[in-house]
Amino acid sequence: MMKKPTFLALLALAVMIAPAARAQQALQPGGGTVRLVLAGAPGSAADAVVRVLAEPLSEILGQPVVVENAAGGGGVVGAARVMQSRRDGLTILSAVSGALIGPMLDSSLPYEIGRDLVPVSQITAAMAVFVVRAGLPATTLQDFIARAKAGRDQLAFGNYGYGSSSHLQGMLLARQAGLDVEPVPFNGTAQFISELLAGRLCCGFIDAGSARDFIRSGQLRPLGSTGPRRAPELPELPTLSEQGMTS
To answer: Which of 3, 25, 205, 214 is most buried as measured by Cβ atoms within 10 A of its Cβ?
Structure first.
């Protein structure tokens, strides 16, 4: 489900396990309204993708599809909501990688991938960009690391939520660079970016699509992107691997 060590931000689609006969009946025309629970905030990139897909999905199934937002915990809140739903085949989860990674990091979570939630399709994959707020003097990744080690900048790394790809990417970079950072989780991309723009965070990983306009307007400064090749949205930005880091 996830290529290591790239930590691409996967958007996966999963369904509750249900007895085969009931699931087949539920997906036939007239089987009832399908709840598509999005483990993300309204207005996020994931929200835009899922709402575009809802209409053709409804046509394929021959049933109404209603999108519900359930942001928080890097996707765990959405997964938990689906777990609390009736196992009738009418509840679908769309989540970023945090919902898949969460059970591997926290055994107390009320679900397991493969037992309770079955991944059925990857919708898309997006590269992430390591950005700093515009007011931070660092202009390159090495400059950022040098300033951080010298204690010149407060290292409050924002992320989408505990266990999210944004969280793990930040911790991986910090470990490779030898930095002691403070991870600060938020309930989704919008809140994270808002705090970053307000100057209450120094930096963090954001998917390239969400970061692009803020970068072009000069509100955020990119220092590197994840993945084996440069992000199509920002072809001039070197990858972290080009700068000696694993991403």
So the answer is: 205
